[in-house]
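I hope you will forgive my troubling you with a question about protein structure. I should value your view on which stretches of the chain appear to form regular backbone elements. Here, with my thanks, is the record as I have it:
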Amino acid sequence: MENFKIVIFLLAVLISLSVVIDKLKLPNPVFLVLVGLIIGFIPILPDLAMDPAVVFLVFLPPLLYDAALRTSWHDFKTNIRPISAMGISLVFLTTAAVGVTAHFFIPIITWPLAFLLGAIISPPDAAAASGIIKGLGLNKNVISILEGESLVNDASALIAYRYALAAGITGSFLFWQAGLQFLFVTAGGILIGLLVGYVLIVIHKRINNYPVVETSLTLLTPFISYLTAEQVHTSGILAVVSTGLLLSWRSQEIFSYQTRMRTRLVWDTLLFLLNGFIFILIGLQLPGILKQLSHYKLSTLIGYGLIIGLVTILVRMIWVFAGAYAFRLFNSRKKKLNNAISVKERFGDWKNVLIVAWTGTRGVISMASALALPLTLYNGNAFPQRHLIIFLTFVVIFITLVVQGLSLPLLIRLLKVKASVNEDKEEKELQLFVVNSTLHFIEYELFPLPEARVIKELKNKYEQLAGKLIKEINTHAQNESEEEQLPVRTLTGMQKAQIEIGRFQRELLLQLHKEGRFSDTSIRQVEGEMDIDEMKLNQMLPKQDQ
């Protein structure tokens, strides 16, 4: 009961922080880890201990599932080689490098524990990096690589974590046996994830008119996929990723617009709470962890963390630049034969390669993995060096999030990186394509034909919209070639009038509600229609006016 009260308190803190974050203009991940550290040292708050198995089950499936849903399958396939290089090869290289460093610099860390620490620290949290670089105008492929990497490296790192944990608990490890089991766990996890995904697609199609039920089902989906795979001893992590990618690919045809709107709002709230809660959780546990490590000097512990953090950053920097150079060599040979895509077209120039290399922030996945370490071994003895591993993980997360996270926007500005694709311009071009196709449909394919007056009104509506989009696209093109940026979206006289009319209607509805002249049911229905109209208007407004 006491722990439940603390959880409610932490949720209240997180909700309050959402306003503070916007005012401070700090990236969410950086701010949350700083707040978690501060809260952990408040004397009146007790240590909050949670079952490690619960931490792993509650936090990881929804985090991975949401990342998979946000991933574009087309972009994922296009960048599969750099994603695989960083999501698989780099993860295992980081695991080995951190393991060797930890074993030789920290005498009490055995080889199994060293590689376990490496597996925990190896996956960068690209979701945290995306929150930091959002709106900074990066190369589109850089974003795609970082998002795709987050899926692959989470899965490969957590599989490595699983075997390192088994070796740490049992004290033995057979490479050939682990290799065969790895293939079974990997293939089985992907297969079960796809199977669960196809079953859920059928279910969603049958309940297409019930957005509340569909939204509730999306909340259950990652846990269904994860638990089903784990029940047959395959990878629940890969199952969740596979299910998420499949549903993302088919989302346009299985989800109604009501479900998409409702689901995105629910998941945005859930992800904010999960990300924030886990950092505050480690903050609350940090004083207790330090008490368990009282035989170490704090400066020694921080020194260990700095060494491991430095190795983690350097390995990524070296690997990304080496991989980009190898990719350039490969494509320069291949281009002579079939005009292959150059590395510059894929990554952008060396500046974007540097940004990918520097965007190695660790986050929730590493923290959840550290907290999920068992309290005891099979024989009942305490898990060796559990508190030390959690503390070192927190130090590395803190270093990468705060140092790399805060310096990343500055680095982007210093490098003067420009976006290769303007997302707003691309959106307008897509809208123009749809509008022109609609005009063609009205002119030649619309059946049954409405009366001439209706056709004229329809064509006039879409022709005006096409003219507005062309003007905005031309403004984007002009902004790309000139230093002075012109406003792309401006308020028209009609939009200004609609804003004032909307305010009048809101005030009138509020007055009628207070007077009780109409039923609450009718007022809510009219208010809902006003909400939809206001949402449509906001999509047309300049971003600074939204």
